[in-house]
Design brief:
Radius of gyration: 12 Å
Helix content: under 10%
Distance between the termini: 35 Å
Shape: elongated
Strand order of the largest sheet: 1-2-3
Low-confidence stretches: none
Number of helices: 1
Largest sheet: 3 strands, antiparallel
Order of helices and strands: EEEH
Number of domains: 1
Number of strands: 3
């Protein structure tokens, strides 16, 4: 399974990230909190 498209929904505190394969199958769908992605800057 190879992800061909990555989508990123930018919100104030929580980002929604999803990956889709070439045939349209959802490979992953995750919520990520902003403070875990940044280095405190």
């Amino acid at each position: 399974m190879q992800v061909t498209t990555i989508g990123l929904d930018l919100a104030k505190n929580i980002f929604q990230v999803h990956g889709i394969t070439a045939d349209g199958t959802v490979a992953f769908n995750r919520s990520l909190m902003r403070h875990k992605l940044t280095k405190g800057t």
